[in-house]
Please model this.
Amino acid sequence: VDFFEATLKNLSDDSYAWIDLYMYTQYGNGDGSTAAWIERFESLVGDIGKVVAILTPWEDPVALSRIWCLFELVCAMRTNADLKVVLPKVEEVSLRAARIAPLDASM
Model:
């Protein structure tokens, strides 16, 4: 639920959301070559034009440790897609608390 809330609050009413789990299988598409598959996927990301990356937990985002997620981010950057990095509400609260805590401790 946090994933969808974080995504939807960053989209306009006329936007579409790409959910990679459902949109494009990593197996059995294209002509079978890696290059063709990468080109096709990058084209899809570019055609959509928007990517929302959910980084959780903020201290060590899982997405930044997964090659597939990094590949999606690279595709977004290479195609100049609108890339938004967002946090679920609970992560935003935790990040704000962590940023404030050192200031409180030094006073």
